[in-house]
Design brief:
elongated; three-stranded antiparallel β-sheet; mainly alpha
Length: about 450
């Protein structure tokens, strides 16, 4: 480009071309493959070329400033340029010329690489979420092959769902299955146990989210996965059951509680903490000592993500849970002071994360422990403590909003759901919690000393 060439243009074969680089911040967060916009202005007049280029750049800057980057695509920019030039009477859409370039044919796998990179860079995926989505896409490719995106349609999605419904459970773990091709397995006359409808729907949900992203990037014209989810008779609530009086009596009457015969102290404390707080397993496993505010007027657990290895389910999970007085009576204060004396910074610092989850080992242990206590119902798991808390709070006619605040559920209020409930006064929550007593169930528990 020489000094006589108008701004935002260059000269090619005596014809002036628009030559404009989009702002780096716009390009970085968009799906565009190139930061540079180049097209023929169809004129040999430098003054006219300069005027057209200046006007187009003003339009492009204004568009990028007022449009969400996720909606800025090659199609939308082309439309803006064509509409501007056509309205000026300078060109028809058919006369727009661009430099020749190689057309990129995206397949499922190549598009997923872009999707994965964007989600990771935007910090929208934790490692576990990333692995789950990669596994779902790997299964998708295995079932319908790594086809070009242009071949994705309702037919291929129905084929995908049909094969998912016949997908063998534990295929990558069982020796008799992992070395056998999927086509051979599905055509075999031998009946294999298949994955559950819930698992099928989870796979479809992840694939649907991927396809929605493809749609927003302009890589597909519609989402053929829409409506593929299988309707289930049982509700999500029915997937987990509460512990009844007999269950809880058994859980807190074993030698772990009467004689302190346990391998790790979480085996004593995690069920008690869940019983009296209704907190999620992961929320309890990732607690730092500084998250336990014993010196406050109302002692509480600060459920937050102030440390790099802490993660919350959603904004509403960020909250203060009052510490029930009966936990103090069972020796919680002594337990925490012992941790401090040893220089520990976390309540259960020896727990190692697996795919960013600290509750993996405790969850496995509890599954075996509750079976030893005679609880065989598969719907009764550690998460059942939360259901137990809800049932007990409803029995004392607690307010629905207070229950949701305690458990970290969305309230239905935009204000509370966006900003969370960590700053909500906990007096009323504490009064509600004190209305519950599990003293009869924990009467055999040996106090921690």
């Amino acid at each position: 480009m020489n000094n006589s060439t108008p701004k935002y243009t260059n000269l090619r074969n005596k014809i002036y071309w628009l030559h404009y680089k989009l702002p780096a911040s716009t390009f970085k967060h968009s799906s565009l493959s190139s930061q540079l916009i180049r097209l023929s202005l169809n004129t040999t007049d430098p003054d006219k070329a300069g005027s057209l280029a200046q006007l187009l750049v003003i339009k492009l800057k204004e568009y990028c400033k007022t449009t969400l980057t996720e909606n800025i695509t090659k199609v939308s920019l082309d439309k803006l340029i064509i509409d501007t030039l056509t309205n000026l009477g300078e060109v028809s859409p058919q006369s727009i010329q661009r430099p020749a370039h190689k057309t990129i044919t995206h397949t499922i796998s190549s598009a997923f690489i872009q999707y994965d990179n964007e989600m990771v860079q935007a910090q929208l995926w934790r490692e576990k979420t990333r692995c789950d989505n990669l596994a779902a896409t790997t299964n998708l490719i295995e079932l319908i092959s790594d086809i070009p995106l242009s071949k994705l349609n309702s037919s291929t999605c129905r084929e995908y769902k049909s094969k998912l419904l016949r997908y063998p459970i534990h295929r990558t773990k069982l020796a008799e299955l992992k070395n056998v091709g999927l086509t051979e397995l599905m055509s075999s006359k031998k009946a294999y146990p298949t994955i559950s409808i819930t698992t099928v729907n989870n796979q479809i949900r992840k694939t649907n989210s991927f396809f929605n992203w493809l749609l927003k990037q302009g890589l597909i014209d519609n989402n053929p996965m829409t409506g593929m989810k299988i309707k289930q008779k049982s509700s999500l609530k029915a997937a987990r059951s509460s512990f009844d009086y007999s269950d809880l009596t058994s859980l807190f009457s074993s030698a772990i509680y009467t004689e302190h015969t346990f391998l790790h102290d979480y085996q004593f404390w995690l069920p008690l903490l869940a019983l009296y707080s209704g907190a999620r397993l992961e929320e309890l496993c990732q607690l730092y000592i500084t998250d336990i505010k014993l010196d406050a007027e109302i002692p509480y657990f600060n459920i937050a993500d102030n440390y790099p290895d802490q993660h919350l389910k959603n904004n509403s999970s960020r909250r203060a849970i009052p510490i029930h007085p009966e936990l103090i009576n069972l020796g919680l204060l002594t337990f925490i002071n012992q941790k401090k004396f040893k220089g520990e910074i976390k309540l259960f610092g020896y727990l190692k994360p697996q795919r960013e989850k600290f509750g993996h080992k405790p969850s496995q242990w509890f599954s075996k422990y509750k079976a030893k206590c005679g609880i065989e119902d598969s719907k009764k798991v550690f998460h059942s403590f939360r259901h137990t808390m809800v049932d007990n709070l409803k029995q004392i006619r607690a307010q629905d909003y207070e229950i949701k605040t305690l458990l970290g559920h969305q309230s239905g209020s935009v204000t509370h759901d966006i900003y969370g409930s960590i700053d909500t006064p906990i007096d009323s929550i504490y009064d509600m919690l004190k209305g519950l007593s599990f003293r009869e169930l924990t009467r055999k528990v040996k106090i921690w000393r």
